[in-house]
Structures are given as C-alpha cells and as structure tokens.
Design goal:
430 residues, WD40/YVTN_repeat-like_dom_sf, Quinoprotein_ADH-like_sf, PQQ-like beta-propeller repeat protein, Lipocalin, PQQ_b-propeller_rpt, mainly beta
Length: 430
C-alpha cells in the first residue's frame, strides 16, 4: 500500500511494510494462490504464509518477527484458534498445498508445532508433478461447536486426469483443538469454500466442480457429527456449481458458478431470493459471462464479488461483461444497497463485521496497473477507501482495526516491466 486513495474517499492509512523475500513475478493471467495472511484473534499478531513454506508471526505494531517456522508444504491458508483474547494459548493453523497437503497448528506465542495432519493420507498423492495435481487444503476455518468446543474445519482436495477421465478426491474435516479428527466427509467433487454457522450447529460446504457421483453444489453438515442435514444445487447443466458460501443466522448466501447468480437460502435450502450477477449476456455477437467467486453475509446484508469475463464459444474475447470485477451488496430482502468496481481479479475476501476488504490483482484483459489495490467497503453503505500497490494484492485480512495485505510482484507479458515487490503491508483502521 502506498497510502494514496481516490480523491472522494477517506484519508490514507498509516501503512507499515515488511519485505517477504523473493518470489517469481506473476504474469498477465492471475496465478494460483501463493501467499496467505491472517490477523490473530488477539489482534496483536500478523501471520504470513509464503509459497516456499515459510510462516512468520510478526508484532502488529512494529512488524518485528516473533517467530518463523518452515511448514511442510506451500503455506496457502492461515486461521487463528482460541486463546483468552490476550494471546495466551492461541493457536495459528496453517493450510498447505504440496506433496502431503498438511494442516498444522503452531503456538502463537512461540511457533512450536502443536499438531500436524497430512491430508494426502485421505485424498491420495499427486499422480503428476505439477501444482494443479498436488493435494490442496483449499479452505480452513475455525470456530466453536454448539457445546462451546473449539474446532478447526478444513477441506482438502486432489485432482487427477487420465485421458478424457477427470476426477477429484476430497475430504472435509473437523478437528478438535488438540488435532484429533472428530469426523470426516468424503466425496468425489471439488470443495472450494467452508463456513460454520455462528451458533456452532452447522457447517456449509460449497463444491465448485461436480463431475462424479457427488452431484450437488452445497452441502450442509451437522458441525458436531458431520452428518448430512440438507443439500442445494443451482440445477444447471455441466460440472460448475458453487463459488462461495456464507452463513448469516439461519440463512446461507451462495454465489453460483452454475448460472452466475447470487442466492439467499433459508433452512433446508428454501430459496428466499436470487439476483442476476454476471449471467450470460450478448455483446457484439459474443455470449459473455463472469463467475461470482465470493460472497459475504452479515446482519442481513450480503455482498457478492464477480471475476473475469469469459466467452461461451471461445477462450478469448474482444469484449468484457458489464458486471465483471464488481462487488454488489443487497439487503435481507434482496433489494440492492450499492455496487462498485473492484477492477481486478480478487483471490479472496477479508471481512470483519461490517468491514469488507478486496485484495485486487490483475485485470488481465486490460493490464492496467491502476487496478492493483486493496479496496475497502462498508457493507451497509459501500466504498470507503483504496490503498494502491505497485504490485498486485493477492491476500488480505482484517480484524479489530488492523488491515494486513500481501503484495506480489507482477510482470505483464507485453511490456517487460516488473512492478512491485513481495511484501507484507499493514495499516491501522482506527
């Protein structure tokens, strides 16, 4: 973050920087997830995960390193568990992508490893030495069940292809705070998102690709037992189903990859409403669409974020979908609240109550460096501020007034210039 904002928006944040070393620059098209960042529940610690497996915990105020460890895999997801609010007994949970697909928990104060679980034992080992075939812990969330027990929920998947046969292997896990597996839920589909309900009774699992026996985009499990409670699907043809899920009370907001709409579901999967987000649209003789990749719901307000433009008949397109790279918010009745451009590809949302943060990376069809930014929104009223980056923003976290983001360097294929650096950027919102 450079500290500049759009003229009509709030004053610049006070931003602190910690270099993260070297990483291969991203290219014109957005790359896979290579970095992760989290603000610990205590609020005084920022934790980063890097593609080489380095995990570092830093003091939020000074960015001085408290500890550094080597995770067994690429460190691509981080969550925080437990503690007394002052950092005592808090645990940092790291999700990996690599040969073992490791989930490991580290003492937040010392970095000592408390437990480790290798998901490759369940989803299998990679059959090809490429990143897309590696076991991947694609989602990791923490919370408490209905009895107040601390839980770590995770989803791991592995892909393989043999000729025309494509197959996914996946497992959803519930761990207790000591790392013991409480239950698992296995399918032959590709999970993409998890969200536990605030009351600790249910866990929503979104499946992005369904090309086997498992043929539904949303599964709701009992958080205590892992038993299947109900399912929902957009009912569309093909294997694309759900992009993201978010609980809000007894409702679940769903971004649909199947029909490119947003849904709010009630108990049992009853559809309360749906909205067109980036549905197929005819422009200059092309049928274009964009995937709704993310959703966040809180206190009767729901925000959806769309991604890149694609054409039905070809990989390339001369035009852009009018709703690509856009955030749109609605109230509990499905009425529009506001919408705004995010301008580039968003790897994942960060949210805390009514604060919503989008780390924006490439808009590969336009290749405009002005799209590189961390954009902030109020869930009720819309845009708040923009912190611009020379490189691309690929991960962000927000908690208790602390905003953290990862910048990665980028080199567009048609200008030869490398922009930005590999660095942690931290700002104070209060």
């Amino acid at each position: 973050m450079t500290g500049t904002v759009d003229a009509e928006r709030e004053d610049a944040l006070d931003v602190r920087t910690a270099p993260l070393g070297e990483i291969e620059p991203a290219r014109s098209r957005h790359m896979w997830t290579r970095s992760a960042v989290a603000v610990a529940e205590s609020g005084d610690l920022v934790v980063t995960g890097e593609w080489d497996g380095t995990v570092t915990a830093r003091e939020a105020d000074s960015l001085e390193a408290r500890w550094t460890v080597d995770h067994p895999d690429h460190a691509v997801g981080i969550a925080s568990l437990g503690g007394d609010g002052a950092g005592d007994d808090e645990t940092v949970v790291v999700a990996g992508r690599g040969e073992t697909g490791t989930i490991a928990a580290y003492d937040a104060a010392t970095g000592d490893r408390r437990w480790r679980y290798d998901t490759a034992a369940d989803v299998g080992e990679a059959v090809k030495d490429t990143v897309f075939y590696l076991p991947y812990v694609v989602a990791c969330e923490t919370g408490t069940d209905a009895d107040g027990n601390e839980r770590v929920y995770a989803a791991a998947r592995r892909y393989e292809r043999d000729g025309d046969r494509r197959q996914w292997h996946s497992t959803v896990y519930a761990f207790d705070s000591a790392g013991s597996v409480r239950w698992t839920y296995e399918t032959d589909a590709s999970p993409i998102a998890l969200d536990p309900s605030a009351d600790g009774e249910r866990l929503a699992v979104g499946y992005n690709r369904c090309m086997g026996d498992h043929d539904t985009g949303l599964v709701v499990l009992g958080a205590e037992t892992g038993d299947l409670e109900w399912t929902w699907d957009p009912g569309t043809e093909g294997d694309r189903r759900v992009g993201d899920v978010s609980f809000d009370g007894d409702s679940i907001a769903v971004s649909s990859h199947g029909d490119k709409r947003g849904y709010l579901l009630g108990p049992g999967g009853a559809e309360r409403w749906s909205v067109d987000l980036a549905v197929e649209t005819e422009i200059d003789g092309e049928t274009l669409y964009a995937y709704p990749n993310h959703v966040y719901a809180d206190d009767g307000r729901i925000a959806f974020v769309t991604g890149n433009t694609y054409a039905v008949e070809s990989r390339e397109t001369e035009s852009r979908h009018p709703n690509e790279h856009r955030v749109a918010a609605f109230d509990a009745g499905g009425n529009p609240l506001w919408d705004d451009d995010v301008r580039g590809f968003v790897h994942g949302l960060a949210a805390d109550g009514d604060r919503l943060v989008t780390p924006c990376a490439q808009n590969f069809r336009v290749r405009d460096p002005d799209t590189h930014a961390v954009r902030r929104f109020d869930l009720e009223s819309g845009p708040v501020g923009v912190e611009r980056l020379e490189g691309i923003a690929t991960a962000a976290a927000v908690r208790d007034g602390t905003l953290a983001a990862i910048e990665e360097p980028v080199a567009y294929h048609d200008d030869g210039e490398t922009r930005g650096e590999y660095a942690l950027r931290v700002g104070s919102l209060e």
